[in-house]
Design goal:
Blueprint (H helix, E strand, L loop, with lengths): L1 H24 L8 H23 L6 H22 L6 H20 L2
Helix pairs in contact: 1-2, 1-4, 2-3, 3-4
This protein binds protoporphyrin IX containing FE.
The site of protoporphyrin IX containing FE has 21 residues, from helix 1, helix 2, helix 3 and helix 4.
Length: about 110
């Protein structure tokens, strides 16, 4: 189970890194990159699977923290989904996506 958890965590981190890197790199073109959608889906799916894997083992997750992270990730997914459909978005829009991803990184690491 530990190896499954490890692999999921690696994919989880790569997933949101794609979102963050993608939107920051797209600030010149002012578009939401297609990769951001795949990235947030990866982060969401691996995050939910990790909760299952941890709860099946001896570890437990902080459900309040996971709930807040899930909510923030859903808002990111909606923003990415809506932004993909627009030809151009503002840098504020891209910044909001980046900021919410950064918020979730902070929640993941600082909320113990
Ligand atoms: C943009 C969205 C997200 C970001 C930026 C993010 C960020 C992170 C980071 C940085 C870690 C590593 C923390 C550490 O090991 O100290 C982590 C772990 C984790 N995340 Fe996320 N996360 C996101 C969404 C989610 C969602 C939606 C869920 C579940 C519904 C989730 C569940 C988890 C779990 C279970 C771990 C592993 C904790 C452990 O191994 O003890 N994450 N996340």
């Amino acid at each position: 189970m530990e190896i499954v958890h490890g692999v999921l965590l690696v994919l989880h981190l790569i997933g949101w890194a794609i979102v963050l890197g993608g939107v920051v790199a797209s600030m010149r073109s002012r578009t939401v990159p297609a990769g951001a959608w795949h990235g947030i889906l990866t982060a969401l799916v691996t995050g939910v699977l990790m909760v299952g894997v941890l709860e099946m083992g001896d570890d437990h997750v902080n459900n309040v923290k996971i709930g807040v992270k899930l909510l923030v990730a859903i808002v990111v997914a909606v923003l990415v989904w809506r932004g993909r459909k627009q030809e151009e978005v503002t840098n504020g829009y891209l910044g909001a996506i980046a900021g919410l991803v950064a918020l979730n990184v902070a929640l993941a690491v600082l909320w113990r």
